[in-house]
Amino acid sequence: MPKAAKRAAAPSRITRSREGTTILTDSNQPTPLQARKSGALRGTARVPGDKSISHRALILGALAIGETRISGLLEGEDVLNTAKAMRALGAKVERTGDCEWRVHGVGVAGFAAPEIPLDFGNSGTGCRLAMGAVAGSPIVATFDGDASLRSRPMRRIVDPLELMGAKVVSSSEGGRLPLTLQGARDPLPILYRTPVPSAQIKSAVLLAGLSAPGITTVIEAEASRDHTELMLQHFGATVVTEPEGAHGRKISLTGQPELRGAPVVVPADPSSAAFPMVAALVVPGSDIELTDVMTNPLRTGLIATLREMGASIEESDVRGDAGEPMASFRVRGSKLKGVEVPPERAPSMIDEYLVLAVAAAFAEGTTVMRGLHELRVKESDRLEATAAMLRVNGVVVEIDGDDLIVEGKGQVPGGGVVATHMDHRIAMSALVMGLAADRPVAVDDTGFIATSFPDFVPMMRRLGAEFG
Ligand SMILES: O=C(O)C1=C[C@@H](OP(=O)(O)O)[C@@H](O)[C@H](O)C1
Ligand SMILES: C=C(OP(=O)(O)O)C(=O)O
To answer: Ligand 1 centre and the CA of 361: distance in Å?
Structure first.
C-alpha cells in the first residue's frame, strides 16, 4: 500500500517537540530526521516506563475494584490509547501528575458497552489485551487501529476467545481489524496451547479467563514475558506457573477472583533502554548510565547477547518493585564480535532484534539471529525492514528462512535513507546506526517514535547524539 494511503487511516498523533513539550501533530506530515557521527556519549538517563507494564496497569486497574495508583506510566501514544479505551469501557482513568495516573475500576466482567469504536492506533498489545478483557464482559465493542495494526493477525486472539464463548465479526481478510467482539455471557475456562510464543495471546486468554468459573490454563512451548501473571497476583488473583518442557511454561488462573486495585510502580522499559545502550556501545569512548531498567529475566535476552559480543555493560543498584526487578546499567563503548543467537532466546528479546542488528553491523564477524518468524507480524515486517535498513547503509545482510545474518565489518558506511514503515523501532534503530556510521543516516519519518518513546530524540541529544 502506498505510504500516503496507509497514513490516511491513522488518527492525529500526540508527539513532542524537540524541547520535550507535548504537541498534536497532523499524521499526514512525515517528520524526517538524520543522525550524524557523534562524539562520545556521556551522562545518565532514565528511559520512560515499560510499555508492557503500563498497558497492563491500566487494564487491570480498570478490571479491579477500588483505586489503582500508577507511577512512572509510559505516556506514549500506545498507552494513551489504552487509557482512552478503558475510559470508554466505564473505568475512571485520570492523570494526576507527570506520569502519575489513577484508575477506578469496574470489577471483573463489569465493562460497559463503549459508545464509539475503540481505536488502539499502532498498538498490538493494547488492542489484543483489551480484546481478552472485553471477551469476559457481556457487551459488544468494536476494535480498530491504524493501517499498521489493521494489517496484523488477529485470528491468534480471536480463536481462543471464541472457544471461551465470545463472538467476533470481521469483514476484513483473515479476521483482521476492524472487528466487532461480543463478550461471552457465561465464559468457559479453557486449556489453551499458544501456537506461537506470545505474551499477547497468553494475556488475552488469561484476562478473558478472569470472568470464567474454574481454571483457565495457557501452555506455551517457550516462555514469553510474564508481566500479566505477576500483576494479576499483585491485584489478588491466584495464578500458578509450572515449567513445561525444556523452555516452556504452564500457567493456570483461578477464575472469578475479586481483583483489588493496587499501587504499580512502572520501571524503565528495557526495550527502550536498548537504543541508548547500543548507541553507547558503538560510539567509541562513550560512557553512560541507564537507571531503573526492568530486569525481568524474560526481557533480558538483548543484554545477555550483547555481553556475549564483548559489550561492557555493568549492572548495579539491583532491586525489585511490585514483582518486577530493576537495576542500573553502566555502558561503555566496546569492540564487539559477531555471535550466534539461538532461537529459544527470541521471546526474551523479540522487540530488540532491530537494534541488535545495528550492533552486529558494527561488530567484527558474522552474527546469525535464528528463529525470527514473529518479526514478520509486528508493526512492520521487521525481518525485511531490518535487512533493508542495513543494506541501504552499505551493510551486507541476508535473510535465510527465519534467520537474519549480518556481516559485521567493524564500521558502517551509512549515507542511506531508511523507510520506517510506521514502525517506531525501525526509526530509532536507524538513528542509532547514524550516530556511528561514516556518513549520516536519515529516516523518512520519526513520528511513530511517539508510540513508545516520546522523549527519544531530546534524551539522546542530552547524551550527546547529533541529529539534524
Ligand atoms: O505482551 C506484551 O506486552 C508484548 C508482547 C510481545 O508481542 P507478542 O506477544 O506478539 O510476542 C512484544 O512484541 C510487544 O511489544 C509487547
Ligand atoms: C511489537 C511491539 O508492540 P505492539 O505489539 O504492542 O504493537 C513493539 O513495541 O515493538
So the answer is: 25
- CA–centroid distance, 319 to ligand 2, in Å, is 26
Pairing relationship of beta strands 22-25 and 13-16 according to DSSP bridges: antiparallel
Q: 44, 154, 54, 164: which is closest to 100 by C-alpha? A: 54
Atom 15 (ligand 1) nearest CA: 351
**Cα–Cα separations (whole angstroms), residue 2 to 5, 173, 369, 457, 460:** 6, 19, 30, 27, 31
- Sequence ranges of the binding site for phosphoenolpyruvate: 51, 124, 152, 200, 382, 425
Q: How far apart are the first and last CA of the chain?
A: 29
**Same topology between domain 3-49+268-467 and domain 51-265:** yes
pLDDT along the chain (468 residues), means of 10: 34 38 54 98 98 98 98 98 98 98 97 98 98 97 98 98 98 94 97 98 98 98 98 98 97 98 97 99 98 98 98 95 87 98 98 99 99 98 98 98 98 98 98 98 98 98 97
Q: What is the CATH number of domain 51-265?
A: 3.65.10.10
Largest CA distance in the chain: 61
Which ligand is closest to the CA of 272, given by its number? 2
**The architecture CATH gives domain 3-49+268-467:** Alpha-beta prism (3.65)
Domain ranges of the chain: 3-49+268-467, 51-265
> Is the minimum distance from the CB of 378 to ligand 2 under 6 angstroms?
yes
Nearest alpha carbon to residue 405 among 431, 375, 372 = 372
Q: 268: Cβ below 6 Å to ligand 1?
A: no
Contact between residue 461 and residue 38 where contact means Cβ atoms under 8 Å apart: no
pTM for this model (two decimals) = 0.95
Cβ of 156 below 6 Å from ligand 2: no
Helix (H, G, I), strand (E, B) or coil at 377: helix
Residue to substitute in 131, 194, 200 for testing ligand 1 pocket (most ligand atoms within 8 angstroms of CB): 200
Q: Which ligand has its closest atom nearest to the C-alpha of 425? A: 2
User: How many whole angstroms separate alpha carbon 219 and alpha carbon 438?
Assistant: 47
